[in-house]
Automatic annotation (TrEMBL):
Keywords: Golgi apparatus, Membrane, Protein transport, Transport. Residues 186-648 form the Conserved Oligomeric Golgi complex subunit 6 C-terminal domain. It is a peripheral membrane protein. This is Conserved oligomeric Golgi complex subunit 6. Residues 41-151 form the Conserved oligomeric complex COG6 N-terminal domain. GO terms for cellular component: Golgi membrane; Golgi transport complex. GO terms for biological process: intra-Golgi vesicle-mediated transport; protein transport.
Length: 651
């Protein structure tokens, strides 16, 4: 085996080149080496540079290491100084730790004392808060008490605020009564607050009374929100409110009475005084009642402005709850709600007008003698009484309404008294003689005219309704104003010598009353039917009388007893007399009945009498046909039933 040949320089270089070429260009270390080599070969890739590359590189490394050592020595010196500083700080820390430990030991007692003081401070703050709450809830300041009780301080918003506070305190005192430890103090506090409230309500009542006296000017109230607020507060004490309102009532009564008297007696530029029309009773009473109604409406509107508020209603409800015993008193007025309060006040105020009104109503009733006028006055009083009740101006027990009720009854009594006096004057007068033409007498015509006025007034009055009481009343009036006069006419007719004239006169009187009542058929149907029945009875009498007159004039009266019908001469005489009477029979009957005021009745009486006569004639003719044959009968008594009916206008 041959020995390996020694390496030649070319092989070394080739190996290096191969080694270099075998390295990947992506090798990071190779790239850094190449970049470093490139930076060193910037002056040129010369042979000298390549030869001294290693030495130059090592020299640079040595130089860099020297600079590092020099810099590190400075750092070492600084670290040494820091160590010295740290040792000094450790010594100071140890010294401070020892001082703090000693201070902590000495301040422990102070901290304990501070904690105790803190607890005491919290307790004091709690007591102070409790005291402040008590002052706020249960203590009234002197200034507030002065506002509530001193008459020198006016009633304003501060007064109402203080009053509300005292009321709240009084209510809150109930909480103190719940505990035995505070019950005694609660009682004392409630007593004190009760006294303050009484003084405040008294002061407020006095202020309102004074305002009532000064603010009432003329016939209108000058109302303000403070007055309404004051009344709403006083409503919480009904007893005090009633005494306060008594001043209002007294003041308004005086003003209203004066105004009423001025209206009655004083003349203005636009109108005469009401008393000027005293000669006209109806207008006089109507004007007075219209004035009173207007005054009542004005009072109600003014009082509504005072009391018809939510605060007033709430105050009255609270007052009824706080003083329930007040309603049980015998002498008290209705203050349960705003509406009843207003009604009670209007009643009390207007009651002052009752006395002057009664004087004048009595004067009217004592001087007026016309029943119709008195009845119309009564209807006026009834109208205003119903108006007051309907519109709730006054209650059912109102003094004014009760007075109007009394006046109405007085008018009713006077109305009947006037009717009786008038009838008495007729009875006491000289004997009445019917008119020559048998017409209804003047007193009956006048009485029916008055009845028409009464019924007209009734139909237009508020009493006109379908109630049994109203119907009974007006029917009694109709009876009182018709029957006595008809009875007087009947007595006068009974003295007449001629029966037919008596019956005609009675029918005329009844017909006069009937014609007057027919104008008010809805009220007088029952009476008209009664009169028709009585007229029919008299008509029957006249029909019978006319029938007898027909028989007598025709000589057929009792023909079966008076005449011998077998005698032809007698029959011929009857035929002649019948022929003489028949043509004028109807005319004579109508002439006899012409004094009837109703032509229809006269025609009816004649017609019915003629029908009865025709029936009797038919019987007479039938009897003759049994005595004579038809030929003979036609010769001696030619009149037939048909001819008689034609002549009597029955066909």
């Amino acid at each position: 085996m041959e020995a390996a040949a020694p390496l030649r320089p070319d092989n070394v270089i080739a190996n290096k080149i191969a080694s270099i070429l075998s390295v990947s260009y992506t090798d990071h270390s190779m790239r850094q080496a190449l970049e470093s080599l490139d930076s060193r070969m910037k002056q040129g890739n010369t042979t000298s540079a390549r030869r001294h590359l290693r030495s130059n590189t090592e020299a640079e490394i040595i130089k860099a290491n020297g600079q590092f050592l020099k810099s590190f020595s400075q750092i070492t010196e600084q670290i040494r100084e820091i160590g010295t500083t740290v040792e000094s700080l450790n010594a100071q820390y140890a010294q401070m730790h020892r001082a703090i430990t000693q201070s902590t030991r000495s301040s422990g007692r102070l901290a304990k004392e501070a904690a105790e003081l803190k607890d005491k401070q919290d307790q004091v703050a709690s007591k102070k808060a409790l005291l402040d709450a008590f002052d706020t809830t249960f203590v009234v300041s002197e200034s507030e008490i002065e506002v509530l009780t001193s008459t020198a301080v006016p009633v304003d918003d501060k007064f109402f605020q203080s009053l509300a506070r005292v009321k709240d305190i009084y209510t809150n005192c109930e909480a103190l009564l719940a505990s035995e430890s505070t019950s005694e103090g609660g009682v004392e506090l409630m007593t004190s607050m009760s006294q303050n409230l009484d003084s405040a309500y008294s002061k407020l009542s006095f202020s309102v009374q004074h305002e009532f006296k000064t603010l009432l000017v003329g016939k209108y109230l000058q109302l303000g929100p403070k007055l309404r607020r004051s009344l709403a507060v006083l409503a919480e004490r009904p007893s005090i409110l009633e005494s306060t309102l008594s001043v209002l009532v007294d003041t308004r009564q005086k003003a209203l009475s004066l105004e009423f008297m001025n209206a009655l007696t004083s003349e203005t530029a636009n109108s005469k005084p009401i008393d000027f029309y005293a000669y006209d009773a109806l207008r006089y009473v109507g004007d007075m009642m219209a004035w009173i109604h207007s005054a009542a409406v004005n009072e109600k509107e003014n009082l509504d402005a005072l009391f018809q508020t939510d605060s007033m209603s709430a105050g009255l409800a609270e007052g009824m709850a706080s003083e329930p015993w007040w309603k049980d008193q015998e002498q008290h007025h209705n203050l349960e709600d705003a509406r009843s309060t207003v009604g009670s006040l209007v009643d009390r105020i207007t009651s002052i007008l009752v006395k002057p009104l009664q004087v004048r109503i009595d004067q009217v009733l004592s001087t007026e003698t016309a029943p119709t006028t008195i009845y119309q006055v009564s209807n006026v009083l009834s109208f205003y009484r119903a108006t007051f009740q309907k519109h709730s101006y006054l209650g059912p027990e109102s003094g004014l309404i009760s007075a109007l009720e009394r006046f109405h009854h007085a008018c009713t009594r006077q109305f009947r008294r006037c009717l009786e006096d008038r009838l008495s004057s007729f009875r006491d007068s000289a004997k009445f003689e019917p008119p020559p033409y048998l017409q209804p007498p003047d007193f009956l015509v006048d009485a029916m005219a008055e009845l028409n006025k009464v019924l007209t007034s009734y139909e237009t009055s508020i009493a006109y309704n379908d109630s049994d009481e109203s119907t009974s009343t007006i029917r009694q009036i109709i009876e009182d104003m018709t029957e006595p006069y008809l009875e007087f006419c009947n007595r006068a007719a009974s003295d007449m010598p001629d029966g037919m004239e008596m019956e005609i006169f009675q029918i005329n009187c009844l017909d006069q009353v009937k014609m007057s009542l027919l104008l008010f058929s809805s009220l007088t149907d029952y009476k008209v039917q009664q009169l028709d029945s009585r007229i029919d009875e008299l008509v029957e009498v006249l029909v019978a009388r006319q029938f007898r007159s027909f028989l007598k004039s025709s000589n057929l009266q009792n023909w079966d007893q008076r005449h011998d019908l077998s005698d032809e001469q007698v029959v011929q005489q009857l035929a002649a007399q019948l022929d003489e009477w028949l043509p004028a029979a109807t005319m004579e009957s109508n002439l006899a009945l012409q004094r009837l005021t109703s032509p229809r009745l006269g025609s009816t009486i004649t017609l019915r009498a003629s029908q009865q006569f025709a029936t009797t004639f038919a019987e007479f003719r039938q009897h003759l046909s049994t005595v004579y044959d038809d030929t003979k009968l036609a010769t001696i008594f030619p009149r037939t039933e048909s001819q008689v009916r034609v002549l009597l206008a029955l066909e």
